[in-house]
Amino acid sequence: MTLEGKVKYIKVVLNLPLKQSFAYKVPAEVSSRVKIGGKVLVPFKRKILSGFVVDQIEREQS
């Protein structure tokens, strides 16, 4: 679970011919289940695609 006052983001690589990752905000209710290397479903250009988490970032909530 995220700490109070912090927001969790993940970087996700998608199975697309792109050489970059994309950042997504993680909803608090699933934050404890999202791990590096885990498979996730994310919105991308009006579709839902599967990808893998390559990094996690926690930022202070503003």
Brief descriptors of the model:
0% helix
Structure description:
The protein is mainly beta and 62 residues long. The protein has one domain (6-60). Helices cover 0% and strands 53% of the residues. It has no helices and 4 strands. Strands 2-1-4-3 form a 4-stranded antiparallel sheet, with no helix packed on it. A hairpin with a 7-residue loop joins β1 and β2 (22-25). The mean pLDDT is 90. This is Primosomal protein N' 3' DNA-binding domain-containing protein. GO terms for molecular function: DNA binding. Residues 11-60 form the Primosomal protein N' 3' DNA-binding domain.
Number of domains: 1
Output the number of helix runs: 0
What is the total tally of β strands?
A: 4
The Cα radius of gyration reads 12 Å
The largest sheet is:
4 strands, antiparallel
Mean pLDDT: 90
Low-confidence stretches: none
Strand order of the largest sheet: 2-1-4-3
Protein name: Primosomal protein N' 3' DNA-binding domain-containing protein
Organism: marine sediment metagenome
GO molecular function: DNA binding
InterPro entries: PriA_3primeBD (IPR041222), PriA_3primeBD_sf (IPR042115)
